[in-house]
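lol forgot to send this yesterday, sorry. struct tokens for the thing we talked abt
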């Protein structure tokens, strides 16, 4: 057989490239030169870092975190640069968690120009100016509500534009339809979809690349992460985002069912709450297992006590199971024990509200 010659570019990629510092021929998978320890992708890393810092200066924190995460993939895990970039991501996330506006566009009105010497308004002009100021302040104070409305509907609609999501959704709808009828099947699929979109929104907020939701008939749906969270707090935030959005759709359906006296909607709301409560069981790879990673052992035991009391009130089986597993996991031996009060409050709050909705 006559050997086939590879194109010059392909042969060069397979053989590797010389180190830009010492000239040593490097294997394609290497991220640092084994001889001089120079970073292989130094030029690209500088471009990514500049783009990330520019996005951070503009207040686009999610974009900045996404850029820094791309840089992590080009750095050796044990390098000091990897640790520095990870710390930068954590700092940006903490700024986001502290409520910093994601964009400078949230500022109300243009900045005042010094020295304009504009006269004070009188009469109707003064009243109109005062009213405008009050409205501006109210809108600014309620910016979280406006952001919530925007961030809820946009991802819900955009998720339906993905062919993989739509096709797997219709496949699941057909399977559930054959067992439960089209009304219940449609409500169930939409509730699962909202749960998964919660994960997608949390991932985008943190700049973590991931796939669109893919439905698995009989098993719900999944979102595949293309990048890993940098610590347990991020993992917990992404994990609990699904039950949080699931609680939202379950509560909305429950209230509508009460207002319309619809047994069908109430059944869908209860099953949705039951599914999200199941996901809070604190074992990997369920969402509750990811949330528990950010809790210290004393916090896990406190969670067990609170949910044990809730079980005594509701007799909800999943709540009792969560409490029992929380006791066991409260005595785990771990080198590092993170403690996050916000995650603890959210976890317990989700469990309480979902258990109440799921009661018959």
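and heres what i got for the seq, position by position
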């Amino acid at each position: 057989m006559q050997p086939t010659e590879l194109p010059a570019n392909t042969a060069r990629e397979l053989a590797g490239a010389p180190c830009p510092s010492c000239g040593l021929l490097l294997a394609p998978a290497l991220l640092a030169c084994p001889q001089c320890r120079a970073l292989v992708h130094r030029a690209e890393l500088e471009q990514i870092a500049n783009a990330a810092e520019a996005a951070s200066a503009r207040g686009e924190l999610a974009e900045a975190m996404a850029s820094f995460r791309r840089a992590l993939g080009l750095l050796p895990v044990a390098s000091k640069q990897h640790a520095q970039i990870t710390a930068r991501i954590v700092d940006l996330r903490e700024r986001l968690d502290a409520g910093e506006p994601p964009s400078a566009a949230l500022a109300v009105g243009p900045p005042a120009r010094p020295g304009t010497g504009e006269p004070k308004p009188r009469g109707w002009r003064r009243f109109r100016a005062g009213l405008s100021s009050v409205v501006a302040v109210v809108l600014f104070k309620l910016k979280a509500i406006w952001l919530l409305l925007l961030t809820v509907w946009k991802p819900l609609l955009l998720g339906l534009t993905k062919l993989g999501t739509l096709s797997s959704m219709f496949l699941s709808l057909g399977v559930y339809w054959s067992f439960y009828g089209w009304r219940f099947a449609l409500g169930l699929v939409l509730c699962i979809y909202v749960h998964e979109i919660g994960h997608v929104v949390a991932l985008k907020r943190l700049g973590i690349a991931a796939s669109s939701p893919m439905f698995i008939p009989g098993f719900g749906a999944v979102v595949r992460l293309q990048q890993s969270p940098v610590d347990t707090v991020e993992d917990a935030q992404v994990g609990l985002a699904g039950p949080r959005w699931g609680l939202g759709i379950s509560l909305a359906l429950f209230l509508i069912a009460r207002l319309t006296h619809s047994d069908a909607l109430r059944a869908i709301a209860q099953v949705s709450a039951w599914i999200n409560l199941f996901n809070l069981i604190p074992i990997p790879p369920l969402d509750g297992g990811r949330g528990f990673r950010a809790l210290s052992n004393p916090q896990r035991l406190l969670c067990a006590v609170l949910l044990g009391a809730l079980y005594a009130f509701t007799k909800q089986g999943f709540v009792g199971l969560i409490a029992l597993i929380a006791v066991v996991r409260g005595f785990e031996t771990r080198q590092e024990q993170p403690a996050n009060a916000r995650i603890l409050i959210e976890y317990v709050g989700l469990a309480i509200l979902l258990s109440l909705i799921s009661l018959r």
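Strands lie at 17-18, 25-26, 214-216, 220-222. anyway ping me if u want another try
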